[in-house]
Specification:
The protein is of the alpha+beta class and 77 residues long. It has a domain of 52 residues. Helices cover 30% and strands 18% of the residues. It contains four helices and four strands; from the N terminus they run H-H-E-E-H-E-E-H. Strands 1-2 form a two-stranded antiparallel sheet. It has a two-stranded antiparallel ribbon with strand order 3-4. A hairpin with a 6-residue loop joins strand 1 and strand 2.
Amino acid sequence: MDFDDQIKLGHLLLSERTCKVCGETKNLIDGFYRTRKERGAVLSSYSYECKECTIKRIQERRRKKVSHPIEWEYPDW
């Protein structure tokens, strides 16, 4: 039994990952942001949330800008 026949390069270098939010399987390099800046593209250096879900989360939780300043008046006591 040859050890090289049992393990293929595709098993060691995963090229796809499933998003934890939407559940879709996407390309690891194109579909996910890197969380660590290392020299090599290590599997653990990519997030578990895809780019689209990250953008949606940030847009939903972003503070709304107030178009007019709030007028404050001194209370009448």
